[in-house]
Specification:
Structural class of chain A: alpha+beta
Number of strands of chain B: 14
Strand content of chain A: 25-35%
Helix content of chain A: 10-25%
Largest interface: A-B, 45 and 64 residues
Distance between the termini of chain B: 44 Å
Order of helices and strands of chain A: HHEEEEHEEEEE
Strand content of chain B: 5-15%
Radius of gyration of chain A: 36 Å
Number of helices of chain B: 25
Radius of gyration of chain B: 29 Å
Number of strands of chain A: 9
CATH class of the largest domain in chain A: Mainly Beta
Shape of chain B: elongated
Structural class of chain B: alpha+beta
Distance between the termini of chain A: 68 Å
Largest sheet of chain B: 9 strands, antiparallel
Number of domains of chain A: 2
CATH topology of the largest domain in chain A: Jelly Rolls
Shape of chain A: extended
Helix content of chain B: 40-55%
Oligomer: heterodimer
Amino acid sequence: MPRVWFARAARRCAAVRYSNWKVTAGSGWLSLCGALSGFLCGCGNLPEPYAPPPQRPVFEAPISGVRVLTMADADAETHFVQDISPSLEANTWRWTGKRPAIRMFPGTTQKLNYTIDFAVPGATFTQTGPVTVSFFVNERLLDKIRYASPGRQRFEKAVPAEWMDANEYTILAAEIDKVWIPAKRGDKPLGFILVSLGLEQTGLEQK
Amino acid sequence: MRALVALAGAAFTATACYALGSVIAARVGVRLRRVEKFPLSFVLGASVLHLAIFAVLALHIAYKPVLWLVLAACAGLALRTGDWRLPAADETSPGLPRAIRYLFGVIAAVFTTLYLFNAWAPEISPDGASYHLGLTARYLRARGFERITTNMLASFSGGVDLLYIPAFAIGHHSAAALLHFTFLIALALMVLAYGQRIGKPLAGAAAALLVYASPVVGIDGTTAYTDVAVAAIVFAVFYWTQLWDENRDHRILIAIGLLAGYCYAAKYTAFVMIVYAIGFIIWRTRQWQPALTVVGCSLIMIAPWAIKNWIYVHNPVAPFANYWFPNPYFYVAVEKDWTATLRDYRLKNMWALPLEVTVRGLATQGLLGPVFLAAPLALLALRNREGRKLLLPCALVLLPYIANIGTRFLISSLPFLSLALALTLETLAPAVLIAVILIHAVTSWPDVMRTYCDTWVWSLHEIPFKAALRIIPEGTFLADHIDYQWARMIETDVPPGKLVFSFTGVPDAYTNREVLISYWGALNNDIGDALTMGWNKGWQPDKVWIFSVPKQKYRRLRLVQTATATIRQEQWNIHELRFFHDGAELPRRPEWRLEAWPDPWGVQRAFDNSEATRWRSWDTLRPGMWMAVDFGQDELVDQVRVELSGDEWEARMQLETMGAAGRWIPVTTHMELRKAVYSGLLRRAATYEAHLRSVDYFLIKDSDFGAKDYAEYPESWGWTRLEHAYGASLYRVNP
């Protein structure tokens, strides 16, 4: 049908003569149609599926394992030593047992702070009451703090350089004096909510 | 000598335009008046000459002798036919009183002096010295068009820019600006002539001065921009339609068609004059056939540009409509950001726009002059026929202004507006009109203008006699401009043929090296993205969505995005998409087939193991975007990991697999969000990506985002700083 319309239109246009230059409108009409169909064809311009490209090399950063491990880190589990739940809750935190611990390879011992972000939940606090948390670096007591109310806590303290060896793993731990005992037998006792734990270097440029 | 060469380049090109136009005008059955002959023939000839230059560039024969030959052929044709001669003065047409003639003549002469010497001085305007002449110089070096996919500005229709090719080849940069100035003179003469033709010589002369003395017209028309030329072409279409309406000789329709098409070829936004011409002709004849002549002739002008873009960048109207014409060269998101900026110029209060474009001029880059605050009075011209004739095309030309509120985008409507305003004021009292012209002339003079507008407004400052006549050498004059120094820095330190990356523009016309500006092309965007990732934590890989899926064999898996963005800029960014089985990542085999939508061309960036690259949707986050993998065979998968950027907040995903019936079926998954950990050196990885794309040089200005990081850690980036001067550093990638 459109072909018939075009033919009729072309015949009508060709019959019209505007000047002694033999300008026919038919050419304009046909060019318009040509251009329109061309425009529509422009949409079919997509590539074939691709194969995977050559894999890029990893450019190694200067060796330094100083970091604060957040519980949501993709490699978090590889640093766990004990008493940290394998399940990540709310994409942010994990339950601990009595004495959660992680291991790190700091590569340095200079200007390091022990840093921990955690919470004493109200739900366990009702059973345990005020708790005392002790913080350890390589089994040496760094500090001990009593928390008389539930809520989010942060603890930071400089670690004496001689407590660590730059070329050895350092174990960081935190121990709660009273754990929450579940009513149901077989369930694990709960310590506190751990968000992050690690070492932070102070006074140096961080990328 | 250099000054004379510049003048010769412009004069010779302008002569060819006039000559060619006069030959055509003599054959379309209309007797032009003396005052009309030059401007109407010049613009008509320019339209046809641009086609000839287009052909020369398409054939890759843009050698100087060829360009000379084309210009000489045009001039020779007019000499042979005698059409170049001006007709005798028309004694019957009403003239201006002598006193007014002298007064207006003096004003015109003073502004002509200001303009001529500014146009003649070495060209260093922002757009002129960067892309208008940058592309001109590049085409001349290549002897023809080049496929440029790294600069979306190269895809604009460049009908006026092509006329700069012969002018530039002969007279270099200033010749182009002088040629544009010729368009300004033609425009003013057309307005003057139109006033005489409708029996309103005072209104015509006054309107011509309103246009001519306007500060934004002055600066634009004396640089290698194109807005004033576009205004001249637009007004020429209107003028020829009026001539056709008087004569009803259908041969005039050819001129109208060519000029209407040339409007599109000169600037996309001027396409409305095609609508105007067609509409006017149909309305006056009540027939559609004559309009088809206009359509056909317009297409002669439009088609070369559309076809060129189609071939080079797969989008006939590039750099716009990339959503409708998807292509790997220009991203939809960049186009959206860019057009959004043009719509508001970061002007907070749109009610301030009238004051901005007439008096202040800083935000919208130029001012029309305070007297244009009285522009609404032009509406009173609707009471008479002549006024209505003018205000209709004025309204049409103003329509695309919504898309770009820069003051110079009002220039095309200015002749219509000025004539309508002048007609109104003349009816009110001729003395008022003369007073308005005097006020306009005084308030538009650079020294006076500075007393009420911002110091940094885009406008002329002085009459640079010495620079124009090259008493001050060109290099000395240009050396005072910091942008020029950047171009020289590149020219000195970067070997020929090497690419340079920059976050902001440089005057390309003064360097032979190709400079990739971070926002003018997809490749540039990718490099800019990688570099920014090197220092900007927000753009770095930050989180990993882990989809635990039923452990079974899958042939195809697809990740579908389901959320809608709350802001336009929000995109879907995937650094890497990885598949696991029993804790081990599936090696990416060559048999895998990867697809994504939108930006199917960038899908490999999510599978390259580089944390400095990411596949981006390059369009606003919306449901239905996807990324799919065909493993080529059944693969055991129990976990899919999607690594996302820190600036990624809203994306929500679901996993699908292809069922036996060939339909995508959702996969039941357990999702977990983790924090991404990357131990590699992102800066070095970003440099590697630039290097892979043949970019080994970076011009970083001190004001660029991240400049401090590049300067403080060049070794971390793997760069060496070659030079730091004029507020910019030039770096080279270490071998």
